[in-house]
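Per reviewer request, we include the raw input and output of the structure prediction for the construct analysed in the revised manuscript.
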Amino acid sequence: MSNDLPSPPPYLGPIPIENSQIISLFEHFHKHYYRHCPILNTEISLHELHESSPLLFWTIIIISSRWHPSLHELYACFLDSYRALLSRALIEPQTSIEFVQAVILLLFWPLAVNRQAEDPSWNLCGMVTNVAMKLAIHRLRVNDRQGLSEKSAWIRRKTWLACVQANCSLGWNAGVAVSAEVLTSFGSPVLPHAKVDGQFILKVLVLRKLSQYTATVTALPDKLNSWAFVQNLCKDLDSVRDGWEEFWTTETEIVVLGAQLCLYTLQLEHAAKSLSPALPMVLNQDNDSARRNFIHLAFMAAARLIHLFSEMLPNDETVIPSDARSDVPQRYLPKHYFALSLLAMAFMYKVKILHFDTIKPNQNQINSHIRRIHEIFSTWSRESSDEPGRAIALMERVAAAEKESRLKLNDSVSDGRSGVKILEDMIDTGRAIREANAQKIETETDDSYDSSPMENLIASTTLPFEHQELLQGWNFPWGLDFASVDQYQFDVVNPYNM
């Protein structure tokens, strides 16, 4: 976008923003965010964007400011006024492509909220999908521009692809099937000319396949031997790369590995429902062998995923954990990546506690993966109450319970949501541990946590163990409310197994 700036400098609510800050934030957005969702008209001037679509203008400002190394304080300053602007836009009839683009950006990078009940991502996704379909952008094809210029038609097609990606990502998180009309609306996209567009489309294709395959596996009969079938689905995800090699990136591989890990865990959970002592011994042995193979495959996918995330960490010493001024690449990733890192972490704990005798990986190897994901969250986090900070607190609680031999995990049983159930079980484990330790924590001094269990595992990377209710209102789209006492009946802290 050209630097033809608004004059005078614009206000959001009572607070002005300087033109130099606008330039810095838009450059930051283009450098770190745009490639994940390249749906904007980059030839429009900043002045014209502000005049034609204040919501899109301020959405870019708010997203870019949240993790900006030097302007992050603007995020808190503008947040309430931005929410008011968004609320006004949502109650008015909307017929512009810029409104659709602004909301889609929010679905990729949601606003920070204190409680899940305050996160409107899934509702916004449904609304913006309907607006996009009303604008008929889902019907645009390569050779059918409907009277638009080639550039405008391409921007609208990409905007619809981003809408599909948001549906698939949030549908996975919420455990809700994406409608067939959304999944099949854009057909097979042609190879784009711009590299950033190709990288973007590849991820859409992967997540679309994940949504389709999840629905297929969920619909399978409980007693059907589907191990080979699901393994072929996971192999098919690798084939997405064919013909698109020049657009393949580390981030694309993370999305593929995450999708495969989701399907592996879904099949493990789905098969758990069909286990029966009434089956012939040969069938049970075959199931056990296939199950061990799938645990191996899931373990390798989770380990590779963690390794790729760790490679994103800066190698210099200028990055300080929990320092907002540090330029940490994974902070700029869409939220879907954070959910995948959590899934990998949860599965590693499942292997460590439940499946160690099954696949017998080296104990130091598992601890190394857990230590690495803790390091990633520590660098990702800016404060103890943000999402990576709450992930660290969860790991602390689980490690403490494991050290005291009070950690009892159960294998998840599928409810049709690929990978989400294992995350819910992990988070619910932390909640149950927190509640069981509530009285104990009140009577212990802070000094009693100077040598936490995670310090033995993670050495100097451990952040201070927080006693406040960090797991309250974890910001996930799948509807966990940690303020409720009526959660999943999950036995994790009964040391006597009574």
